[in-house]
Task: structure prediction
Amino acid sequence: MRPIIDIDHLSKRYDSGTVALNDVSLQISEGEILALLGPNGAGKTTMISIICGLVVPSGGTVRVGGHDIRRDWRAARKLIGLVPQEIALEPFEKVIDCVRFTRGLYGAPPDEAYIEKLLRSLALWDKRDARTRELSGGMKRRVLIAKALSHRPKVLFLDEPTAGVDVTLRREMWQVVQELRNDGVTIILTTHYLEEAEDMADRIGVINRGELLLVKPKDELMGEFGKKHLTIALDVPLATLPAELAARGLTLSADGREMGYDYDTRAERTGIARLLADLAERDIAVRDVSTKQSSLEEIFMSLLEEETA
Result:
């Protein structure tokens, strides 16, 4: 199947000499959710802006639905919806008129039934006649999403869509995202809430200093880079950790009641069985054992540390 977005050797260098993107290539399949992660200034927004036709690239090509974003920009742009980081709305315009106007900008004919369905799905229908200046920050961000979806795009970019939004609104927004994905909409999101990416995304991309470090299916990334932490609760606290155990990578909590051990889930032998046997031989009574998988945030930070080392 042909990807709905095909990025080939994309670069962006500004006149100041700053390289925002350096030879980025990426294919995004129709209907998938791709989370693009990176620190501030990594190049995420630059890449999105280029695909959406807001920034001119220095090199490379981008096709959306088979349409080159520079040679056939009208056709490409009609397939795209963008929810930007910044909230920029006409303060005196009514919510419903704001969404209608955006739909018209794309040349889409009036469709009041769809506008109502869209506003209801975002819990905006009761606010349809409110001026945008009267809305909370979270509601304003919902209006941005409604505007981005007003012309029924095939691709939706969400650039930090839940910044400044409370937990309830965040959950409701992600429910809408899942429904859009079920309808076949391709979604590319950037977020600083890494638990959202972990919950929502099919694939994870990590970008830093304008370079795409990796793009992998979420489960593969978690399995390949994730480690597990074993916590061993002791019946009797230890004053010190035996040197032999410390040499094997175990740590002891400040109160001496727990030992910690990190291990690679991909290893042929984790060493846990041998470790527990060693504890028994030393008459160290174990009360309980629990494990914790590395989070996406921990994996993300370790990748950045490796890249900057």
Summary: The chain has two domains: 5-222, 227-293.
